[in-house]
Design brief:
Rossmann fold, 15 helices, six-stranded mixed beta sheet, 45% helix, alpha/beta, six-stranded parallel beta sheet
């Protein structure tokens, strides 16, 4: 394996990642167009960096090699690779959501992006909904023939929740080139997670947390500080819970672990301030000096992965309700830590993993009533029901782990040729 280290100037990195990727693309991908701005976007810099990545790949690749490109930051790389390696097999995997037509087409550069992705032989997504959104976007901008539609994979929910799809487009053709559209969610690494949880130091951490919060239900929410993660909606739901359930005062604690993805980005600084203010408000309202109970425990410091897994294993409920999320591995990681098959998972219908884990408590984070019902249901769920649901989710996460995803992808690569027919 060869690693290529490219050197970019600090300003280029800032323009490429902090501005173009996070201020222009990120809000569109997550269906927040009101946060979108193109005024400060340096499109030429984005093109340049994508070309440099493409050139680096082509320097290493044979003329007919398979070149696998990952995520929206490199949307234009397939186009440049195709120019330099016309016979290469090009695969692209999209790790974020892919939005609906009317949202994606807000992007001024939509045509160039779609043209680049249509240079690929395979375009992959986590779930069928994102694949269908991409096909619809492509059809809105270019002449596309739908070649094949198939039922969704067996472990994906077909109907009944926000991101469900009963069938999915698997092949399209554009200007003679066949493009395979794949939908298969990335898994986690259960064996590695299990090995970390079983370490003596992790077991000691779990025991100390359980002793500290003995007699209380422990809820955890973990994720980056990001407006798409729904921290405000979770905290407001927890505040409402304490308002209507004084019997829970002193009996439930909410751990919120969130770290900013990058320093110096105004939108995330604002989100962090909002979270801190809400936590302060809740603790100010409900904390009593006569008690050692603090309702919300906020951590904005980065934890080691092993420590985070220990927190998961010690928590009774994992609350993961982003407003939009591509997949969300936190949900799967929490499941693997449940050695006794207990615990409860609350998931947003708008994260990709929800279509794999229908046994979770699925909720609509845009609905106050739905969020209130979800946390009440979680707190009242009998142990027998917990174990039934968690056992099913545990089996799913182990069966469809990251190796399963990798085997699926490489089998797809082996069966793919660069297929172009004359028109």
């Amino acid at each position: 394996m060869t690693f290529y280290i490219g050197f970019m100037k600090q300003q280029q990195v800032r323009d490429f990642y902090h501005i173009t990727s996070k201020e222009a693309f990120w809000p569109i991908l997550h269906s927040f167009p009101w946060y979108f701005t193109s005024e400060t976007t340096d499109w030429e810099n984005f093109q340049l960096i994508n070309r440099k990545f493409a050139e680096a790949a082509c320097e290493e690749a044979a003329d007919d090699a398979l070149i696998w490109v990952h995520d929206y930051n490199l949307w234009l790389a397939p186009k440049y690779i195709r120019e330099m390696k016309p016979n290469a097999r090009i695969a692209f995997f999209h790790h974020t959501p892919f939005p609906s037509v009317d949202i994606f087409n807000v992007l001024p550069w939509r045509g160039e992006i779609v043209d680049s992705l249509l240079c690929c032989d395979i375009v992959g997504f986590h779930i069928p909904r994102y694949a269908e959104n991409f096909v619809n976007v492509a059809r809105s901008l270019r002449e596309i023939d739908v070649v094949k539609i198939e039922p969704v994979p067996e472990h994906i929910t077909k109907v009944g929740i926000a991101l469900a799809e009963p069938e999915v487009t698997t092949q399209i053709r554009h200007q003679g080139q066949l493009v395979r559209i794949d939908s298969f969610p990335v898994g986690t690494s259960p064996e590695y997670i299990k090995s970390l949880v079983e370490k003596p130091e992790t077991q000691a951490l779990i025991a100390s947390i359980k002793e500290k919060y003995q007699g209380r239900k422990l809820i955890i929410a973990a994720g980056r500080i990001d407006y798409v993660k729904g921290h405000r909606q979770m905290l407001e739901a927890f505040e409402r819970l304490l308002e209507r359930r004084p019997d829970l005062h002193g009996k439930v604690s909410f751990i919120v672990s969130c770290v900013a993805p990058a320093k110096g980005m105004q939108i995330y600084d604002t989100t962090k301030q909002e979270i801190e203010q809400l936590v302060g408000k809740i603790n100010g309202r409900f904390t009593r000096f006569s008690s050692d109970w603090i309702p919300v425990l906020l951590s904005t410091e980065a934890l080691s992965y092993q420590s985070l897994l220990g927190d998961f294993a010690a928590s009774d409920i994992c609350w993961t309700t982003p407003l939009r999320d591509g997949l969300n591995l936190v949900a799967k990681e929490y499941i693997v830590t449940r050695q006794n098959r207990d615990g409860i998972l609350i998931l947003s219908e708008f994260l990709g993993a929800a279509v794999e884990l229908p046994e979770a408590i699925l909720t609509n984070p845009y609905s106050v009533k739905s969020m209130d019902n979800a946390i009440e249901q979680a707190l009242e769920m009998p142990m027998e029901e917990q174990k039934q649901k968690m056992t099913k989710m545990y089996e799913t996460v182990w069966k469809y782990d990251v190796r399963c995803w990798a085997y699926h992808m490489f089998e797809l690569f082996q069966n793919t040729t660069h297929d172009v027919v004359s028109e």
